[in-house]
């Protein structure tokens, strides 16, 4: 029984033990305080804790959704320990842990940490969902094959993701010449904020296959809203634009998991952690509302009835 003289253990959305219990929860939050390969400003290792602390201050009724995402049950795992061997070993650890959670029927929400953590998350989901596509929010192209001697540097995140699933990216406004050439030559669906505004959320959603994994580097947002990132870029997306795209995607596709990465809380105002927390909370609601509970388990490919777009 809860002893009301004590605060409950820190968990996402500050839920009661019953609503945060692993067995009951459809969503599981995995904090990954890892930022070993960042080059500009470290600090994303403090992101998961800041997001979870900020989530205690949210209203748990989401006005935009008209629902209470916590009713799906949200369990918060302990922080994943960084593997000090190599970035690749850390990605393997993330891949393995997320795989176990998916196999347990959970909808996995990964909180970074640097954006590299998404590589492990994408791999775990792609292996279990043939035909998966990835929707990436990012200011940067992240398409380098290797950077500073590693294929698992944060500048390589979307290149690694592309190896296992098609990637549609939104928010692009910073790239190397080589990355820009790769986008052109391969005809990759990478949208600048202006191109996204011109296309609209439905066109972007229409590019995705039935099952979608969403990876969010918070530097996709304009720095006026999201200053607490290591590599801010001017001219970014606004809250309502990101939210509208998430609504469009979850309306037309099945979002199977997501991550929110790159919050460095010491680099910006407290509102940044609040924004990251609300983003994760809203996307839990969007992904799980109107979806039967049994549906969170991976579908067998033989049972697929609709063709991928
Ligand atoms: Mn980025």
Q: Can you give a write-up of this model?
A:
The protein is globular. By secondary structure, the protein is of the alpha/beta class. Strand 1, helix 2 (47-55) and strand 2 (74-76) form a beta-alpha-beta unit. The chain has one domain (26-291): Ureohydrolase domain (Arginase, Chain A), CATH 3.40.800. Helix 2 (47-55) packs across helix 10 (271-288). It has helices spanning 17-20, 47-55, 87-103, 117-128, 157-162, 177-186, 193-199, 201-206, 239-252, 271-288; strands at residues 27-32, 74-76, 107-112, 133-137, 167-170, 189-191, 211-217, 254-261. Helix content is 33%, strand content 14%. The protein starts with 16 loop residues before the first helix and ends in a 21-residue tail after the last helix. Residues 296-309 have low confidence and may be disordered.
């Amino acid at each position: 029984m809860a002893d009301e003289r004590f605060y409950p253990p820190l968990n996402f959305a500050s839920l009661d033990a019953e609503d945060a219990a692993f067995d009951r929860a459809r969503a599981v939050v995995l904090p990954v305080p890892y930022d070993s390969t960042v080059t500009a400003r470290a600090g994303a290792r403090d992101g998961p804790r800041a997001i979870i602390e900020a989530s205690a201050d949210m209203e748990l009724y989401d006005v935009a959704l008209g629902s209470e995402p916590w009713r799906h049950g949200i369990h918060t795992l302990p922080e994943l320990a960084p593997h000090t061997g190599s970035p690749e070993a850390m990605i393997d650890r993330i891949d393995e842990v997320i795989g176990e959670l998916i196999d347990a029927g959970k909808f996995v929400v990964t909180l970074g940490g640097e954006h590299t953590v998404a590589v492990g998350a994408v791999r775990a989901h792609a292996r279990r969902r043939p035909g998966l596509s990835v929707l990436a929010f990012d200011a940067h192209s992240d398409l380098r094959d290797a950077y500073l001697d590693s294929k698992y540097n944060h500048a390589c995140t979307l290149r690694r993701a592309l190896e296992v699933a098609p990637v549609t990216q939104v928010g692009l406004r910073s790239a190397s010449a080589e990355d820009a050439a790769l986008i052109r030559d391969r005809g990759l669906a990478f949208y600048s904020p202006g191109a996204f505004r011109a296309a609209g959320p439905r066109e972007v959603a229409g590019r995705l296959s039935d099952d979608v994994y969403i990876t969010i580097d918070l530097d996709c947002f304009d720095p006026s809203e999201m200053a607490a990132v290591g590599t801010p870029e001017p001219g970014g997306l606004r809250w309502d634009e990101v939210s509208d795209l998430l609504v469009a995607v979850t309306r037309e596709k099945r979002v199977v998991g997501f991550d929110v990465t790159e919050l460095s809380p010491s680099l910006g105002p407290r509102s940044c952690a609040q924004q990251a927390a609300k983003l994760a909370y809203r996307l839990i609601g969007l992904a799980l509302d109107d979806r039967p509970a049994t549906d969170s388990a991976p579908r067998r490919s033989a049972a697929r009835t609709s063709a991928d777009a």
